[in-house]
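Input record, target 12 of the design panel.
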């Protein structure tokens, strides 16, 4: 069985590959792609494969973009760290859906389901991908890895995300900070734009956490939140109009 893993996190990729090869010696991981662009290129240029394990959130956007770019008639098992997505929709419209951190038993069950499929089954499932995309919703909570646990943090409790020294953190409304392993570029893509705004390269802020806005001397905006932030939050002159419109929407 030839398998492609679409995953932008090295640790997750290594873990999945290790489990697959230990489960079945006949499984051959023929490639790893980390982005929409790489995946499209791989599927267009390489011989057909049997199965894809695909992370929904990639370095350059949602994996669903792949399906709107090219025709994918290969069975897909989706993986993600976000349990707030429509799990039932994934179960119905894809081969399977695995929640990170992925356990060996879950992979065994997914592979068992895949092996029972005939060609007609596969065509039926892949034809339902558009329905799956349409059912996709903004997350209601984030799962924050902490040691050997995952801590659920409701979206409405998040005041901001910020990055410093290549490390991302989120601050909840009680001031507590959590380390999160996704860059802001990825995070902003899955957030409701009515609720969150990309203030600058370092901050994503929640509308309901804004305390006041100060017009700065160079036409920038200084944003103060209800929680303390590690540094001041500025909105550039070029983004100021969009920000003010967003605040009152």
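The sequence produced for target 12 reads:
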């Amino acid at each position: 069985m030839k398998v492609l893993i679409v995953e932008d996190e090295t640790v997750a990729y290594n873990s999945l590959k290790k489990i697959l090869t230990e489960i079945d010696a006949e499984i051959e991981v023929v490639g790893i792609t980390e982005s929409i662009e790489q995946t499209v290129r791989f599927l267009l240029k390489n011989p057909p494969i049997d199965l894809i394990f695909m992370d929904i959130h990639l370095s350059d956007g949602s994996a669903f973009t792949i399906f709107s770019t090219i025709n994918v008639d290969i069975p897909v098992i989706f993986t993600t760290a976000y349990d707030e997505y429509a799990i039932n929709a994934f179960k119905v419209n894809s081969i399977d859906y695995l929640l990170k951190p992925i356990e060996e038993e879950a992979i065994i069950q997914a592979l068992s389901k895949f092996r029972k499929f005939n060609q007609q089954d596969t065509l039926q499932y892949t034809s339902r991908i558009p329905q799956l995309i349409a059912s996709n919703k903004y997350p209601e909570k984030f799962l924050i890895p902490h040691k050997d646990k995952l801590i659920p943090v409701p979206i409405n409790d998040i005041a901001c995300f910020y990055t410093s020294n290549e490390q991302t953190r989120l601050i909840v409304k009680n001031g507590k900070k959590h380390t999160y392993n996704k860059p802001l570029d990825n995070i902003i893509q899955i957030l409701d734009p009515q609720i969150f705004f990309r203030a600058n390269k370092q901050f994503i802020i929640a509308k309901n956490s804004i305390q006041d806005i100060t017009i700065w001397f160079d036409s920038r905006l200084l944003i103060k939140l209800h929680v303390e932030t590690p540094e001041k939050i500025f909105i550039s002159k070029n983004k100021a109009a969009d920000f003010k419109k967003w605040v009152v929407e």
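The chain is about 35% helix and 30% strand.
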